[in-house]
Each structure stands twice: as structure tokens, then as C-alpha cells.
Amino acid sequence: MRMKRHHKISIAHRLASLALAGSLMFGFCPLPAVTPEADIRRDAAVAATEQVMPCVVNIATATIVEVPDFYQDLLRQFYGQQTPAQRQEKPYEIGSGVIIDEEGYVLTNLHVLRRASRVQVKLWDGRVYDADPLVAAKQKDVALLKLRAKPGEKFKAIRFAKDDDLLLGETVLALGNPYGLGGSVSRGILSSKNRRHVSGNEPLDVEDWLQTDAAINPGNSGGPLINVRGELIGINVAVYREQLGMGVGFAIPVKQISAALAEFFTPEVANTLWFGARVVQAGTDPLVISAVQNGSPADLAGLRAGQRIVQVNGGTPKDLVDFHRLVTANKNHLAVLQVEQNGERRAVKAQLVPFDDLIRQKLGLVLLNLTSQTAASSPVKPGQGLFIEEIEKHSPADKAQLQRGFLLTAIDDRATGDLISVADILSTKKSGDRVRLAVVVPRRINNSYVEYRPASVTLVAR
């Protein structure tokens, strides 16, 4: 019985061998066994795209533009009256962005937001949010937004690659949400890790930008460039230096993005609170204090460059965003930090100062950001100046005869388009220092026409 069974098995094996030999002889190859659930199309690039696409957003902006008016032109031509031009919002849907934190922080290109008076962000699932531009790095062409979300609302955020974890020739994907029509992705390789200048007349700091042959169209500008692990390695920049030829795309590398975030995520930027210490993080390394401003709350608390941050207000910060969230958590603006240096730990307390208090303390002013409504009839647009809302009696501003309704445009020849810029200048001023303000003064003529004139005043800081 065993002999017969073995004989049958041997015959079956021989028949299978003959069938295989025949298929090879006539050019046929047997198909590999495929399980029903396997899909050969679902490679690492597809998985990375599915993972990251919910983090990619469309960015729409609206810009205030002047509208020609026939009757105003007649008054100007025949009577020389300079009546304020009518203005209206002109909408654009011009770029993409990427969510970098679950609280709704979004990175994009600065040129996507340039001259925008209002910003809206559309998510991959169709949800639309108004967003506030917070800060930008002009030379790197990167800007930070914050979604106006409901309290406690969370968003899917992209993961960052390590600063220098780049492979020349590796597969990369350029993602975007162009014109609000939905997700877009193009595939290529990393062509260069440190693209160099062709000439010395570059408008941007592109010394070490990434170069790829993945198509980066205008609508994808500001979107993420990722690796096949789904990690952010750069921010796309579209249609830069078209004369270099087709098939060449550029991205701001993650190393420069991390450096920009170290500037962005400070209490000064997002919460208008004066802290005075710069915190950096290299990859996944611990947070370290890199610089401390003399006379700042951080300096008075005893924080020094080189100290490693262990805890903030009872929590352990995992990154810059988390540090910023913890250091500004207390309503009384008190930050209790545990720092370590040379193996020794100690606790320090820093009392953060609101910008409004700092400006009032130094000059006796209360300033407000310009809106499209408050700037409608003035020559100063939002982001180019601040509205003087209140003057404290017997203050330096009062002695200089400043009045409510004046527009502050510069301090010591530095533009003051927001409270951050004003506080940054005043935080270095000591009592008795002279401060030169450039203002725009409105003057009503015939109870119907308002004329705006530039002026300069000098104050003495308290």
C-alpha cells in the first residue's frame, strides 16, 4: 500500500514538473499565489498619502482693493479734492498648507498670505475655518496660521522627519489642496538636498532648499513635501525661477522649518506675552534655552542659555508647541519651570507680562490692530499700522499730545504693523530712553472729508 501511494505521488510531482517545463518552453510563467485581500497597488507611497492627506488644507484669502468711482474721479480732476477711494474685498484661493499641531496651527508659504486682509482654511473633508496669521519668516517664505476652532476641537497633525534625515534619490510626494477642489499628490525623487545659488541676486534665502522632480503646481504651494513614511521633510514652493526649466520643484527643508518654529512658538508671538527666552529643539532632543533677553521676565527669573527644560507648570513638554502651551497655561501668566544644567536641577518662576501692560507701562498707550473696517477710509492698511485707542493721562504719550484715532506706523524707523513689533522694540527700552514715533494724523475738513497727514513725535520712556 505504501509503495502504491508513493508511486502516485511521484507521478503527480513529475506531471507538475513537466507542466512547469512546458510553460517555460512556450514563454508562459505561472501566476504567483495572491491572497484575496492583497492589493499590489497599495505601496508605501499610497499609504503615506492616505496618512497625510487629512493634514493638508486649502488656503483662501481676501484682499482689500480700491474700486474706481466715476464721481470721485471727477471731483479729483476738476476740483482737486482727494476723496478716499472705495474699497472692497477680492477673494482668492491660491495655495495650500499643512496642519502641524492638533490645536490647529497651520504652516504655509508667506507669499500665499501676502496682502491678505482675511484668511479662510478649507480642510480635506470640506470643513471651513477662519484663520489668523500669527507670524512669518520672510527670507524663508514660511508663515504660521491658527485656525479659529471651537474650544477643545482637535485636528490631525503631520509628523516631522528628523532635521537631516534625507536620502538623495529617495521617493518623495508633494501634496496640496489646490483651489479648494480636493487633495492633490505628485510623485518624484529628492533631486538635491542643498540646492545652491545660481546668482547672487536671490529674493529669498534658498541656500539649502530641497529640489525635486515631483510636480509642484501653484495651487500646491505651501503644502507638504513628505517621504514614504509620511513624515514632513519640506514645505512646497511653486513656480520659483521658471526660467530654470520644467520638472524642477523646490521645498523649504524641515531643518529651516524647525528653526522658524523656534521663533514662532514663543509666548510673544501667539499670546502677546513677554517672556524673553528663546527655546530650541533639535529633532527629538530635549528642549534647550538658546538665548535670554536682558531685563526680560525670563532673565529676572534666572533662566540662562544652555539650560535644559525638564518641566513647565507641572507638565513635561514634548516639543515646542507643547512648551508654548504649558508656559502660557496659567491665567495669572506665572510660569514655573524646572531646568537642568551640568547635572543640577532647580525650579524658577517667571512672571510673563502682557504686551498691553508693557506698552502702557513704557508709553501710556493702548493700541489696537487695524481691521478692514477701521482702515477702510485711511491710507494705512491692516498690517501696516496700529490704531491708538486710549491715552493715559500724564503719560509720555499724553505729554507728546498724541490723541485717540491717530495711527502708529513706526517706532525708531521700524515698522509697527502689530503689537509684537511694538513690544519687541519697547522691551529693550530703559526708563529715560528716547522713543521716536511715526504716526498718521486724521483731520476732518468741512465735517465731511477726512485728510490724513504723516507726523513724527518723540517720547521719553518711563
What does this structure look like?
This protein is an alpha+beta fold. The protein folds into four domains: 50-147, Thrombin, subunit H (Beta Barrel), CATH 2.40.10.10; 161-254, Trypsin-like serine proteases (Thrombin, subunit H), CATH 2.40.10.10; 265-351, Roll (Pdz3 Domain), CATH 2.30.42.10; 355-460, Pdz3 Domain (Roll), CATH 2.30.42.10. The chain is built from eleven helices and 26 strands. A six-stranded antiparallel barrel has the order 1-2-3-6-5-4. The chain has a six-stranded antiparallel barrel with strand order 8-9-10-13-12-11. Strands 21, 22, 23, 24, 25 and 26 form a six-stranded antiparallel sheet that branches. Helix 9 packs across helix 11. The chain is globular and about 80 Å long. It starts with a helix and ends with a strand. Residues 1-9 and 18-29 have low confidence and may be disordered.
Helix-strand layout with pairing:
Blueprint: H1 2-25, H2 44-52, E1 56-67, H3 70-79, E2 86-101, E3 105-108, H4 110-113, E4 118-122, E5 128-137, E6 142-147, E7 159-160, E8 171-176, E9 184-195, E10 209-212, E11 224-227, E12 231-237, E13 249-253, H5 254-264, H6 267-271, E14 273-274, E15 277-280, E16 288-292, H7 297-301, E17 308-312, H8 320-327, E18 334-341, E19 344-351, E20 353-354, H9 355-363, E21 365-369, E22 386-391, H10 396-399, E23 407-411, E24 414-415, H11 419-426, E25 434-445, E26 449-460
Parallel strand pairs: 7-12
Antiparallel strand pairs: 1-2, 1-4, 2-3, 3-6, 4-5, 5-6, 8-9, 8-11, 9-10, 10-13, 11-12, 12-13, 14-20, 15-16, 17-18, 18-19, 21-22, 22-23, 23-24, 23-25, 25-26
Helix pairs in contact: 9-11
